[in-house]
Every structure is written in structure tokens, then in C-alpha cells.
Amino acid sequence: MSNNPEKKGVSAIDFFCIGFGAIVGVGWAVAINGWMTSCGGPIPAAIGYIVALVMMIPIALCYCELVPMLPVAGGGMAFSYRAFNENVSFISGWAAFGAFVSIIPWEAIQITDVLGYLIPDIKSGEPLYQIAGTDVYLVTIIIGSVASLLLFALNMRGLAAAATVQKVLCFILVGAAIIGAVAALIGGDAKNWQPIYDVSDPTIYGAASEGLKEVSHHSMFGGIMAILASAPFFLAGFETIPQGVEDAGGDITNVGKTVVLSVCLACVFYAILLFCFGYGWPWQEFAHMANPSASTMFLNLYPGAVGEVLYWLITLGAIAGLFTTWNGFFMASASLLMGMGRGCLVPKVFAKQNKNGIPVPGLIVCLVLSLIGPFLGAGLIQDITSFSAAAFVLSWTITSYSLIRLRKKEPNLERPYKIPGGIAMGAFSAIVTTVVFVLLFIPNNPVYMGKTASIMFVGWMVIGIILFLASGVQRRRISPEERAAAMFSHAKDA
């Protein structure tokens, strides 16, 4: 594998915007009050994201080594295929695919929900029906469907076009967040952080975020650790980077490094916003504010024209952010499905690309799932979040073990970048992710994701295993060598 910085393609900066935008755009403006209440305040939530950073850096470093070493669509699925076998690869890929595609309808729901607060007429009149205690309206379904079709059309133009839009949206959301943080610090007061930790007010929960699960902690430490139940979901956007690696231009090593950079900056970004917005307004009142809560706060903090301007600026950033995540995972989901199709882990039709190299069958699946989102309503948001978090952690766990396995199995495989600590770093990542994954399913601990999300996760994996076993006859018609060649023959020549 040789470096070729002259070759045209998606740049490292573009990949950073894809990954960072997909991470922080996932809902900071609409989820931040939910983080505060589920952790017992902005301070434990902010510290929780610093703890999450300690967990995420080793994971990101694993990707930093593996992405340039095996630069093909599929990410962790492809790494585990090379390290172990098709069975482990399918578990990793199916878990990741479940996490990816759950984010797509999640974003469709959030976009229509935010627009419903901005334009109340969208939710006027009689609702069509209710799901999980929330109303679903015809206009929100139409808006979500139109937005889904626009994203589909954008991604049909290829990764480069989608990356350009992603870059613009990323700048908008970061700019809005910086303005909001500064404005909150100017107009706020440190007393708004008080009480530093409190879970005694049951009226907060559910007000901050529809379906917010009941807290299972009664100490500051528990509040800090509680963020780990949802942090994987809100930090998972870096997964969009390895999925697009085949379109990279320049030094392939830089693509892996953008994974680490995007994760580190995202954790710091979240922690700073929690400190600043918690400083801006009493956090227990902030919990009751209508979404997007980060925007609504400024109508109270700065009455008059200044507050109105800030409200619309932050709201623009919130919507841009939701679209960056939606767009990022639209791209990533189709690429992952394409990689699984190459290895015959799913029907081979998903391996097909059009003459421009675009995975059309995968994009169609993403479109269908995105169109489903507006029909579900906001009542399922928390369960989708928790399910996705567990699926991501399982995929990351397998990726961590894959790095260890490949270091031993193929020590001479060219590695454009070797992570500091080597196998020890991979082992640390594997241990941490394994522990977090187990804790997600154990009741009465701060990380527990809840009964409904647990059932969703088990159900998803059982469905996947059944489909995998049912397709075994078709898969065995192609030799393992041919399947491996199909998966890795598209490796990006860096």
C-alpha cells in the first residue's frame, strides 16, 4: 500500500466534517436538557462526557490503526471478517447496521418534532393517531418524508457531493453552538448550576425529553456514570468515517486520525456546552423548556430582540446539526450494507453499485427506513437511543478484539499507522467496552438502558441470526476465498 497524496477524492477535512458533524449534530440542542436531568445536573453530565472520552479514545485509536490497514467499506464488520470469521463478522455488522439505521428514523422524528415547536400550526388540528403517548400529525409526516427524499437525492450524487453539504452544515452548527455558549456565559450565573446534583424532583423526568427513562442512581458518581447509557449513541458519528474510506483522497493514514480527532473534540464540545448552558439558566427550569431547549432558553435569558435573534440562530444550528447526523448515517448505512453484501452476509444484491460507484440498493433501504421515522412520533426516541447505544458498543467491542487478533494473526500486514500501546491499548478498549455492554443490561445500575430497549436489542439480534442461518445455503455456494476477495478487493490504494 503506497501513499498518494496527489490523488483526488474526499479529503481528510471532509472526513472530519462527516464524522464530527455526525457526532455533535445528533441532537445537542434538543437532548442537552435530557442529559442534565438523567444525570442529576449539568455538572455530573459534563464530567460524564469527560469520562466517556476516556472510554472512547482507545476505541477510536483501534479504528485509527484498522481503517488505513483495511480501507474498505464495512468498518468493524470487515475488520472482524479478516480477524475471525463470517459468524463474528455478521454479529458485528448486524449490530452496527441496527445502530446506524435506527439513527436515520430518529433524525426524521427529531426534525419534524423541532419544526412542530417552531411552527405550531404543523401540529394543529386532530392527530392521525398516537404512538407511545405522543401524537402524530399528517403535516409532520409530509415534512419528514420530503426531507428524507431530499437526502436520498443528495446521496445519489455520491459521497463527494454529500460531504460538501456536510461541511457547510457542520460550520453552521458549530458556529451556532459557539455563539450560544458565549451568550449563556455572558448572561448567566454560577448559581444556576445549583443544586450540583439532584434527582429528587420527579416532575423533571419526562419533561426534558419524551420517554426519558427513570433514573437508577442516587449519588454524584452515579449521575456521572449515567451518561454512559446514552453516550455511545451521541458519540457514534465517527463510525461514518470508515464507511466512506474507499472514496478517500490523499494520505489514507489521515482518515484514521480524523476518527480520533472527531471523538476527542466531540466529547469536549458536549462538556463545554453542558457547563455553559447550565450556567445560563437554572437547570431544573431548563428541563421543562420546549425543544429545542438550547434555543428556548435565550427567549428567557435575553427578553426582546436579542433573545429572538439568538433563538433563531441556535435553532438554525440545531436543524443543521440534525441534518449532519442524518446525512452522515444515510451515507454510512448504505456503505455498510454494501460491504456486508460483498461478503454474502446479507443478500448479494446489496453489493451492487451503479456506474458512478454509488450503492443504490443500500440507499433505497435507508430511504425506506427514513420514511418510516415520521410515522413513529417522538414517544419512541429514548428507547431507540438506548437500543442504538447497545448495538454500537457491541460492534466496538468486537472491533477492539479484532485489533488484538490481527496483531497476532497477521503481524506483518502493512499498518500505515500503529497505535501507541499496541495490543495493550486494544485490550484496554476491549475490557472497557465489554464491561459497559454488560452493564447496559443489568437493572438497578446507572448505565442500565431499560427493559424496552433491552427487548428491542435482543429481538434485533435474534432476527439477524435467523436471517443469517436461513441464507447459509446460498452463502456456501461461494467459497470463503471468493467472498473474502470480494470484500477486500475494493481496498483503497492509499
TrEMBL record:
<feature type="transmembrane region" description="Helical">
    <location>
        <begin position="168"/>
        <end position="187"/>
    </location>
</feature>
<keyword id="KW-1133">Transmembrane helix</keyword>
<feature type="transmembrane region" description="Helical">
    <location>
        <begin position="454"/>
        <end position="473"/>
    </location>
</feature>
<dbReference type="GO" id="GO:0005886">
    <property type="term" value="C:plasma membrane"/>
</dbReference>
<protein>
    <submittedName>
        <fullName>APC family permease</fullName>
    </submittedName>
</protein>
<feature type="transmembrane region" description="Helical">
    <location>
        <begin position="136"/>
        <end position="156"/>
    </location>
</feature>
<dbReference type="InterPro" id="IPR050367">
    <property type="entry name" value="APC_superfamily"/>
</dbReference>
<feature type="transmembrane region" description="Helical">
    <location>
        <begin position="259"/>
        <end position="281"/>
    </location>
</feature>
<feature type="transmembrane region" description="Helical">
    <location>
        <begin position="220"/>
        <end position="238"/>
    </location>
</feature>
<feature type="transmembrane region" description="Helical">
    <location>
        <begin position="87"/>
        <end position="106"/>
    </location>
</feature>
<keyword id="KW-0812">Transmembrane</keyword>
<feature type="transmembrane region" description="Helical">
    <location>
        <begin position="43"/>
        <end position="66"/>
    </location>
</feature>
<feature type="transmembrane region" description="Helical">
    <location>
        <begin position="387"/>
        <end position="407"/>
    </location>
</feature>
<feature type="transmembrane region" description="Helical">
    <location>
        <begin position="309"/>
        <end position="337"/>
    </location>
</feature>
<dbReference type="InterPro" id="IPR002293">
    <property type="entry name" value="AA/rel_permease1"/>
</dbReference>
<feature type="transmembrane region" description="Helical">
    <location>
        <begin position="358"/>
        <end position="381"/>
    </location>
</feature>
<feature type="transmembrane region" description="Helical">
    <location>
        <begin position="12"/>
        <end position="31"/>
    </location>
</feature>
<dbReference type="GO" id="GO:0022857">
    <property type="term" value="F:transmembrane transporter activity"/>
</dbReference>
<keyword id="KW-0472">Membrane</keyword>
<keyword id="KW-1003">Cell membrane</keyword>
<dbReference type="Pfam" id="PF13520">
    <property type="entry name" value="AA_permease_2"/>
</dbReference>
<feature type="transmembrane region" description="Helical">
    <location>
        <begin position="419"/>
        <end position="442"/>
    </location>
</feature>
